[in-house]
Each structure stands twice: as structure tokens, then as C-alpha cells.
UniProtKB/TrEMBL annotation:
This is SDR family oxidoreductase. GO terms for molecular function: aldehyde dehydrogenase (NAD+) activity. Residues 3-205 form the NAD-dependent epimerase/dehydratase domain. It comes from Nocardioides anomalus. Coiled coil: none annotated. CDD domains: SDR_a7. GO terms for cellular component: cytoplasm. It comes from the Bacteria.
Length: 286
């Protein structure tokens, strides 16, 4: 299968390209910069230079592919509306060219627990985009929402856990909200990439799959592991103080982001084999 991948040089994207190539697929990866292009080439993919704002280019790439994996996103919390607008336009442009083809796109777990759950579209602009893209199944597109755990971890990750470690280093303490029992789902990046491939190959139209290996790691346990690794104390803070105490990551760390992947495992035969989050944390604190 010839697969067009956006976000191909990113954290999950690069692992996904590697997985697809290893499975015998031909991959074209979108790359905005020379650095990203070089990264995509080293993974064994063909480079298409451009960005998510070029909807004509995206449509052409989707039209020439056998399927699309859309992992690119404008991750700037100061421009959330603009990011959502870019994502919506990109999904519309690619989706219009994918009748009879698979279209796997990145989503999250906010407001859901199981694969059948559909969150309120008012929760976040990206949630509305996800609902609209899934609805393309009614037009013959095999759309699949790949809902990633908030913690897609592994050596080299610069995401949420890396930010938690950075904040702990900066402030001299590893914090968690309340009693720290709120769960965060987690998955190793290699397992997430394998699930994306399986979803592309097999998942039914209009479905959601959960990239969740651990259904919920207590945030207190995460903070304590960070504290041990950095040689810092651990403390509880009030959930209302999470932003002031920890910056933008604080409110996310105070949320309940646990979820199940039972249906995903059963329908696709996906079984995670990577290390757990707590086993991986020494890579972040070294």
C-alpha cells in the first residue's frame, strides 16, 4: 500500500513511518523543513515538502495514495483556534480524495473511556474536527480515529512527561494534584505505531481505536518516579493551583485521562509489548 503520512518526522509519526516501511508499505511523508525532510528520508520514506496549510498539495497527495495517516498538527497552545482551523481544512481536503480508501487520523482521550464513546463536540475544537472526519465514513471513506494516550512515551520523547520532568527540575519539586489518584493512560511509542498500521490495514470505517497499553497510571506514582529520578521531593497541590504551580501542563496533569483499549485489542489483535511508563521514566530523568 502507498501511504501518505502527515507529521511524518514527529514523535509518533517517525515511529509510524518506520513501522509502515518495515511492514512492506511504501510511504510518502510530509515535511515542512529541510531538517524534517532529512529525518523522513532516513526512515525510508519519500519526502513531500509542504505544510498543513497547503490544502491543494494535501489533496493531491491523498489522491495519489492508497491511504492516509494524518498525524500532523499545529501544537501551539497560544493559537488553539488557528490550529483547529488548519486541521479541519486539512482533513476536509484529504478526505474529499479518499473514497474507498483508509484515512487514519490522530485524536485524544479527553471525554472518553471506551472506543464506543463519542465526546461532546463542544469540549475542544479538535473534538469537533474528529467527529466531522469520522462522519466521512458516510461518503465511503474508511475513517479511523486513533485516540492516543496522553503519555506516548519512549526514549527521545519531548511530550507531556518530558515537560513534567522539566517543570520538576525548574521548580525543585515533583508535584501532583490532590491525592494523585487520577489516572493517566500510557503507551510506548512503538506500540502506538504498530496500532496505527493495524488500523490502516484493518479497522472498519467510522471506528475509533485506543492506543492505550496501561489504562491508568496514577499521577502520584508518575510524580514520585520523577522525584526519585531527579532526587527531588514530591508534593500534593490543589487542583485549582495546578496552572500556577506547574504552568500549562498542570491542568492536564490534574485531569482523569484513563481509558480502556479492550475493544481495540480484540478487534485488531493488538497486544502492547513495550516497556511501561514507570519503566521508561529513567530515560527522562537521566
Amino acid at each position: 500500500m502507498h501511504v501518505f503520512v502527515t507529521g511524518a518526522s514527529g514523535w509518533i509519526g517517525s515511529a509510524t513511518v518506520r513501522e509502515l516501511v518495515s511492514a512492506g508499505h511504501t510511504v510518502t511523508g510530509l515535511a515542512r523543513s529541510e531538517e524534517s525532510a532529512a529525518r523522513v528520508e532516513t526512515l525510508g520514506a519519500t519526502v513531500l515538502r509542504g505544510d498543513l496549510g497547503d490544502t491543494g498539495l494535501l489533496a493531491e497527495a491523498a489522491r495519489g495514495a492508497d491511504g492516509v495517516v494524518h498525524l500532523g498538527y499545529h501544537h501551539d497552545f497560544s493559537q488553539m483556534d488557528r490550529a483547529a482551523d488548519l486541521d479541519r481544512a486539512a482533513c476536509e481536503a484529504m478526505g474529499a480524495e479518499l473514497e474507498g480508501k483508509p484515512f487514519v487520523f490522530a485524536s485524544g482521550l479527553v471525554g472518553v473511556r471506551s472506543e464506543d464513546d463519542r465526546p461532546s463536540t463542544g469540549a475542544h475544537p479538535r473534538v469537533a474536527n474528529s467527529a466531522a472526519t469520522l462522519a466521512l465514513a458516510e461518503r465511503g471513506v474508511r475513517t479511523v480515529a486513533a485516540r492516543f494516550a496522553p503519555t506516548v512515551h519512549g526514549q527521545g520523547d519531548h511530550g507531556f512527561v518530558a515537560e513534567l520532568v522539566r517543570v520538576a527540575r525548574e521548580r525543585g519539586v515533583a508535584s501532583y494534584a490532590g491525592d494523585g489518584s487520577n489516572p493517566w493512560a500510557a503507551v510506548h511509542v512503538s506500540d502506538a505505531a504498530r496500532l496505527v498500521r493495524l488500523a490502516l490495514e484493518e479497522a472498519p470505517a467510522g471506528s475509533a481505536v485506543h492506543a492505550v497499553a496501561e489504562e491508568g497510571v496514577a499521577t502520584r506514582d508518575i510524580a514520585e518516579a520523577i522525584g526519585r529520578g531527579l532526587g527531588l521531593p514530591t508534593r500534593s497541590i490543589a487542583a485549582d493551583d495546578a496552572m500556577a504551580e506547574m504552568g500549562w501542563i498542570g491542568p492536564f496533569f490534574a485531569m482523569d485521562l484513563g481509558a480502556t483499549s479492550a475493544q481495540t485489542r480484540m478487534s485488531l489483535g493488538w497486544e502492547p509489548t513495550g516497556p511501561s511508563l514507570l519503566e521508561d521514566l529513567p530515560h527522562y530523568t537521566a
